[in-house]
Design a protein that fits this description.
Elements lengths: L4 H6 L7 E4 L10 E7 L5 E7 L5 E8 L6 E4 L44
The structure holds zinc ion.
Zinc ion binds next to helix 1.
Protein name: GFA family protein
Family: Belongs to the Gfa family.
Keywords: Lyase, Metal-binding, Zinc
């Protein structure tokens, strides 16, 4: 689950829930729009969304390329319960009320961030 500020905008104030896959295993069909932006990490990220309903579908790091798996928004999967969350990232950006499962690891920032602390 990602608590970066961009994900909070996307998820209406909460974290996004993402399932990670190797990019080569991902196919997406349909009317998909894309946005490229600099993420909180400093990396360049492409976000894919449905042009019909606006739902966020994926996020992938384009620069540096090939460094991270693609992040599929769990709610868009045919089986959104495919995998339970197993970590929180960007917890420094989370609001004080953010619910955290104490059994899961928390990371103050994201893995592979171009911007270091
Ligand atoms: Zn995020």
């Amino acid at each position: 689950m990602c608590w970066c500020r961009d994900c909070q905008y996307i998820a209406s104030g909460s974290a996004t829930v993402n399932v990670l896959f190797p990019e080569a295993a991902f196919r997406c069909a349909g009317d998909i729009g894309t946005l490229r932006m600099t993420a909180d990490s400093g990396n360049t990220v492409e976000r894919g969304f449905c042009r019909q309903c606006g739902s966020q579908i994926y996020s992938r790091t384009t620069e540096p390329a090939g460094t991270q798996p693609i992040r599929i928004r769990a709610g868009t999967l045919d089986n959104p319960g495919l995998r339970a969350p197993d970590a929180y990232i960007w917890t420094d950006s989370a609001p004080a009320w953010a619910p955290f499962d104490p059994a899961l690891p928390r990371y103050r920032r994201g893995p592979g961030s171009a911007r270091k602390e």
